[in-house]
Amino acid sequence: MQLMVTDKTRRNLLKAALLGMAAPVLPFGCASNRALREPGLIGCSIHGRDDFQVTIADEFGQPIYRLPLPARGHGVAIAPQLGHAAAFARRPGEFLMVFDYTKGTLVQTIKASNRRHFYGHGVYSNDGHWLYATEGERATSRGIIGVYDARNQYQKVDELTGFGIGPHEVIIMQDGTLVVGVGGVHTDGRTPLNLSTMEPSLTYLSPEGELLDQVGLADHHLSIRHLAHDGNKTVLCGQQYRGKPEAYPSLLAMHQRGQPMIPLHAEPEQWARFNHYIASIAATNDWILATSPRGNCYGIWSKHSGELVELLPLPDASGVVTNGREFRVSSGSGKVIFQSQPGGKRQINSNIPWDNHWSAIH
Questions:
Q1: What Gene3D superfamilies does the database record attribute to this sequence (predicted)?
Q2: Does 29 score more than 50 pLDDT?
Q3: Is residue 28 assigned to a domain?
């Protein structure tokens, strides 16, 4: 069965977009085939100047629904219990947008207050009741975790603070502990103002905001930004280096509460390939994979030895998630990589220009 895209269809798709409803993606044959595909991955995407979307895809990265975003997006949080996801504006962001990923429909858009902005990431509590968002005070970059009641129209009910400035990503552990990558950078817009005195940290908070642990790295110019955990007790953190341009320190570290940071290893010329920036991280029992869109590459480390095992080119390497023991990597070029371990990969083309991050629906 061939699906014809008529002028009436185009008008209906445009009307759906204007109403805040995602247009179903059409190039996959008949609609019944599309309906059989289940949402598995969500990420923000860039389709042209001022054309920003959040894309709901199947487990292989093939798009099912797309929703327009008010501006460029960054991270996505998912609550399977509700069928909801939240896309966060790229820092300094003005919005977070909640949508029903099972239907491709808008739920609501929350705007930042005049003196606040979003930092691009958030996470739902393990029961889906609360949405935690990284936020900042514009004048000072004071770090805030905004707490929103997902079961009460996303009313903001609390703010957790007192842990530092410039938080970027927040994740949640199995026991409900929040882990925050605190960048330590005071900014005016995206311009850093305090590079000589920045104080980044990896911070652990209780759901009520109690500071449980806080650790840093030896070089205070390593701004801790992106996080992942291995499904157990190990947190992985990726850094953006804000020091001397000719220096290439380790950009990845592992940590467990109550212990020191363990930097991962690679040669300086290998770290140079990452261009001072780690975007997305994921881990299996044996391997850690990290991407760098600025470096157009991704690397795979042994989780046991901490050594870089493989470094591969990928134009605009973006998000990474795990599916069992397999990594799935997105890119701004539309390529999707499937790889379980070093030495073997396969790829397809999703035709979606993915942005920095992917989130998996579990």
A1: YVTN repeat-like/Quinoprotein amine dehydrogenase (2.130.10.10)
A2: no
A3: no
| DSSP for 65-120, written as a single string | EEEE-SS-EEEEEEETTTTEEEEEESSSB-EEEEEETTTTEEEEEEEPPTTEEEEE
Beta strand pairing call for 297-302 and 287-292: antiparallel
pLDDT tens digits for range 268-288: 999 999 999 999 999 999 999
Give SS3 for 127. Answer: coil
Residue 298 belongs to domain with CATH number: 2.130.10.10
| Residue 28 binned pLDDT confidence (cut-offs 50, 70, 90) | very low
Question: DSSP of 287-355, one letter per residue?
Answer: EEEEEETTTTEEEEEETTT-BEEEEEE-TTEEEEEEETTEEEEEETTSEEEEEEETTEEEEEE----EE
pLDDT digits (tens, 9 = 90+) for 154-171: 999 999 999 999 999 999
Tell me if 330 is assigned to some domain.
yes
Dist. CA 61–CA 360, nearest whole Å: 10
What global pTM score does this model have?
0.90
CA-nearest of 204, 203, 202 to 222 is 202
- How many folded domains does the chain comprise? 1
Exposure b/e, 300-316, CB count within 10 A at least 16 = b: bbbbeebebebbbebeb
Q: Is residue 2 part of a domain?
A: no
Cα gap 319→316, rounded to integer Å: 10
End-to-end CA distance of the chain: 32
> Is 23 among the domain residues?
no
Segments forming the whole domain that contains residue 136: 37-360
